[in-house]
Write a structure and sequence with these properties.
alpha/beta, 2 domains, five-stranded mixed beta sheet, two-stranded antiparallel ribbon
Length: about 325
């Protein structure tokens, strides 16, 4: 990929330089203009990784408009067409004229950035998610242009380079779960799932009113953790008299400082006393931003972070390669 675009000033406006994706021995032959930002790419790559462009790039109703570009001959020219004031799409430019997009009320720069991420995914180039909204637009565009498999394949690497995005997953975990499901990315789904089954006494997944299937997946994981809690309680009940007395004394001591103790805090304390091994419950399965978080401590006093789900229980067909 070429270096980030530079701006050139003409008499009364600023013109963005094209962003060109480069392949040795192959000249770009497609111009995709997202508002005022042009992307120069290769039709074979688009056809392989985008079912949308594979279907429409050479469709009979698209008259080829060839143009000469500084990068070489451009066979396909697509420009932005508005669909109302807040939506847009790329269409074949049959008249060699740019369509008027001044009525668009959304954030053009944001849309351009997210479309760039789509192309980076297609070309297996690195990209960074800056916000939860980035993920939303990325998934929406990937769904429309039928590049979700490419996004799914490249998203994991992007996540490990997207610190700001990762720090926002917890408070947006249910939305992220839905986006991860659509993108079919296991790492992101499992990360959001760890947060969604907390806080323990009122888990966030309960807000998934409209997505009963996803809510059921979360509920099953929550119930598995609850079953582990029951097993731990059973082991506590089997403690000998001396250990039980020691635990009761500690509970009385804890209650002097607070009205109650959350279940994660309780098991953290019992584990630290050496009465039972609660490490299975206290395990942290986060792999992105929260690898140092501790269940039952700090901001996660009412969280277990040990959520696990097998690939077979994920809410999509893991054997499907095109969708």
């Amino acid at each position: 990929m070429a270096l980030p675009n530079k701006k050139q000033k003409t008499s009364d406006q600023t013109v963005l330089q094209p962003i060109s994706f480069e392949i040795s021995g192959m000249a770009a032959d497609v111009s995709l203009k997202v508002f005022d930002q042009e992307f120069l790419v290769h039709s074979p790559i688009l056809k392989i990784h985008s079912a949308f462009f594979n279907k429409f790039l050479d469709s009979p109703d698209k008259t080829v408009v060839r143009g000469i570009h500084v990068e070489g001959e451009i066979k396909y020219q697509w420009v932005t067409e508005l669909d109302g004031e807040n939506d847009w799409q790329l269409v074949a430019n049959l008249s060699e004229e740019n369509l008027d997009t001044t009525a668009y009320k959304g954030n053009k720069k944001h849309q351009q950035h997210c479309f760039l991420m789509i192309l980076c995914a297609v070309y297996s180039k690195p990209y960074v998610l800056r916000s939860i909204r980035d993920l939303q637009i990325l998934v929406e565009l990937a769904d429309y242009y039928r590049t979700l498999p490419s996004v799914s394949r490249t998203l994991t690497d992007a996540l490990f380079n997207s610190g700001k995005f990762n720090s926002d997953i917890q408070k947006n975990c249910c939305l992220v779960l839905q986006m991860a499901t659509e993108a079919r990315n296991k790492v992101l789904f499992k990360e959001a799932l760890c947060y969604a089954i907390g806080p323990w006494y009122h888990p966030k997944y309960l807000t998934l009113y409209m997505d009963k299937n996803l809510r059921k997946v979360c509920e099953n994981v929550y119930n598995k953790v609850a079953a582990t809690c029951m097993n731990m309680h059973y082991r506590i009940m089997k403690l000998d008299h001396g250990e039980t007395e020691r635990l009761n004394d500690k509970i009385s001591e804890w209650r002097q400082y607070q009205d109650g103790v959350s279940l994660p805090v309780y098991f953290r304390k019992v584990h630290s006393m050496g009465l039972i091994d609660a490490s299975k419950l206290l395990t942290n399965n986060l792999v992105l931003q929260g690898r140092d978080y501790l269940a039952g401590e700090g901001d996660y006093q009412d969280w277990f972070l040990c959520a696990e789900i097998s690939d077979e229980d994920l809410p999509w067909d893991i054997t499907q390669t095109e969708w």
